[in-house]
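I hope you will forgive my troubling you with a question about protein structure. Here, with my thanks, is the record as I have it:
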Amino acid sequence: MSYFATSARSAVGLVRSGNEDSGLASSRLVAVADGMGGHAAGEVASKIAITTLSELSAIFTNPEIDSESADDIYLNSFHEIDAALKSAVSENPELSGMGTTLTSLFLRDNSVALLHIGDSRAYRLRGNTLEQLSVDHTVIQELLNQGAISESDVATHPQRSVLTQVLMGEGNLELPLPVFEGKVKDRYLVCSDGLSSVLSEKEIKSLIKGKDRDEAVGALIDATYINGAPDNVTVVIADIVEEVPPDSTEKIGAAQ
């Protein structure tokens, strides 16, 4: 049996007045949600995503449940969160238009399942190789896929932060659940775009390689501040280990 040993931190940054990010770190599940919407609605949306996912995790992380059922329930949490967002808006119409990204990794046996919508990201460091496991749901990514723009155009493109998919309580969610082989000593990073929009993949790799988890998280947050920290930044690092870590679930950011 393998587990996640985690370290997590969420920071407001140097420009924003509040934190619309939420995060979750536990021995089988990590997640980051980046909320959006005025009047603090982003905070509400990301908190709903993380709280709902955390509640459902009591079911899908139960060792008694078979892996297929666990994956189904995990994937279905998208719909549960979407329904919770819709319900919150109907009870409080001024939250209308709020939404949230969600990027999450669920470790079961020796597999890591990825639940992902929006532009928060999941990376895996294995040995000397850092790989982005998630694919951004953004206009920019679609243009890159089509070959309409090059990587060098991204930083200055006027639509660089426009999302094509996000949780907003609108239904119509058809998303895959990619599953990756997990190995002991793999290091996973889940982060909001407050990190990935200011640091290159090369910089991220250099900051998380060869450090202990807490040190790596601190180095990533510090580097975003050195680069002006224009957005909230949330970082969860999870290492696959064989020994059982202390049984704790940590919620960070707006979900606290």
Q: What stands out?
A: The first strand starts at residue 3 and ends at 11. DSSP finds six helices and twelve strands in the chain. The mean pLDDT is 94.
